[in-house]
Design a protein that fits this description.
Radius of gyration: 20 Å
Number of helices: 2
Strand order of the largest sheet: 1-7-14-5-4-3
Helix content: under 10%
Strand content: 25-35%
Keywords: Signal
Number of domains: 1
Order of helices and strands: HEEEEEEEEEEHEEEEEEEE
Distance between the termini: 64 Å
Length: 308
C-alpha cells in the first residue's frame, strides 16, 4: 500500500509539472472573448505590478509566456522568420517618453504572421507643468487590425527589468487596476475595493475605464463595478502590464515584455501594412497617475486591416 501511495504521489507531481509546462506558449484569444470577460489571465503574481511579480520560467508562472532564444528569434519554434522591424517614438505633450519596438515575423508559407511590440521608457517628464517628475507609465499596450481573425497571443521577458503580462483581452478598453493601498508591501499585494483582475464585459466601449484621479499611498483604492468592465471588440488585442522609467509604487520596469499576436497574413509587402493608430499605449492611473493615451503615428497590422 505504501509503495502504491508513493507511486501515485510521484505520478501526481509529474502531472502537475506537465500541466505547468503545457501552460507555456501563445494562447487563443477568441473573437467573442471568454465566458465572463473579454480578458484572460496570464501572470497572476505581483498584483498587476503594484507588488513585486515573479517572472515566468519554463516550469512556473508561465501562462501566455514563451521562451525564444532571443528577442529576434521565432517566439513559437514553428518556422517564423523576422521579416520587419521598426522603432517608433512614443510622444505625449510634445515629450518623447520612450519608444516601441514594432516587429513582424512571417512563416515560410507566408500565410501566418506574428506581430510584436515592446515599450522602453525614457527618463522624461511628460507633464512639466505639474510639480515633480511625471514619468509616463504604460499599463496597457493595445494593438488593432485583427477583425474576425483567429489569433493567439502571449509575451516574452527579454530582460530582468521587464514587466510580465498580467492579462490579455479581445477588447479596445484598458481597465484600471489598483492595489488596496500603496503604503506597505502587504497592502500593495491586496486588491482595491471592487477592483477585478478580470473585468466584466457588459457595456464599456471607451478606450479607458476607471477612476479619473490618482490616489496617494495611504488612500484606500475604491471604485464601482461599472468601471471594471470592457466590452469585447474583436479588432483589438489589449495586453495589461506595468512598465515605466520610475513607478509611483517604486517599480523600475523600464521595459515591457515583448508582446505577440499571431494571425493570418499573406505574401504582400509588409511595408504596406503600416497603419496610423494601430498601436496605443495606455496609462490607466494605477497609483497617483491619471488616465492617458499615446497613439503611435504608425504600427504594423495584418494586410487589409481596418484601423480603428
Amino acid at each position: 500500500m505504501k509503495s502504491v501511495t508513493i507511486k501515485l504521489a510521484v505520478l501526481g507531481a509529474l502531472s502537475f509539472i506537465s500541466m505547468q509546462s503545457m501552460a507555456t506558449g501563445l494562447v487563443a484569444i477568441p473573437t467573442t472573448g471568454f465566458t465572463s470577460s473579454a480578458y484572460t489571465s496570464c501572470n497572476t503574481t505581483g498584483n498587476f505590478g503594484s507588488s513585486i511579480p515573479t517572472l515566468p520560467t519554463t516550469t512556473a508562472n508561465n501562462t501566455c509566456a514563451v521562451f525564444p532564444t532571443s528577442e529576434s528569434a521565432d517566439p513559437t519554434g514553428a518556422g517564423y522568420t523576422l521579416a520587419a522591424s521598426k522603432t517608433r517614438s512614443a510622444t505625449i505633450n510634445g515629450v518623447t517618453v520612450g519608444y516601441v519596438l514594432d516587429r513582424v515575423w512571417r512563416n515560410a508559407a507566408k500565410t501566418s504572421c506574428i506581430f510584436g511590440a515592446r515599450f522602453t521608457a525614457y527618463d522624461a517628464d511628460w507633464d512639466p507643468d505639474t510639480a515633480g517628475t511625471q514619468y509616463f507609465e504604460v499599463n496597457d499596450i493595445a494593438r488593432a487590425g485583427f477583425g474576425s481573425l483567429s489569433v493567439n497571443a502571449g509575451y516574452y521577458i527579454q530582460a530582468t527589468n521587464a514587466s510580465p503580462v498580467y492579462r490579455i483581452g479581445r477588447t479596445f478598453t484598458s481597465v484600471q487596476h489598483r492595489a488596496y493601498k500603496y503604503d506597505t508591501a502587504t497592502n500593495k499585494a491586496l486588491l482595491g475595493t471592487n477592483y477585478l483582475d478580470l473585468p466584466t464585459k457588459n457595456s464599456v466601449t471607451s478606450n479607458l475605464s476607471g477612476e479619473a484621479t490618482g490616489i496617494n499611498a495611504t488612500t484606500v483604492a475604491s471604485t464601482s463595478s461599472t468601471t471594471q468592465d470592457a466590452v469585447v471588440n474583436s479588432n483589438w488585442i489589449d495586453f495589461t502590464l506595468d512598465s515605466g522609467y520610475l513607478d509611483d509604487d517604486g517599480g523600475t520596469n523600464v521595459n515591457s515584455a515583448m508582446t505577440y499576436v499571431e494571425a493570418a497574413c499573406d505574401d504582400s509587402a509588409i511595408s504596406g501594412w503600416e497603419k496610423a493608430g494601430a498601436i496605443r499605449l495606455r496609462q490607466t492611473g494605477q497609483e497617483a497617475t491619471t488616465m492617458q493615451e499615446i497613439t503611435l503615428d504608425l504600427g504594423y497590422a495584418p494586410p487589409g486591416a481596418t484601423v480603428p
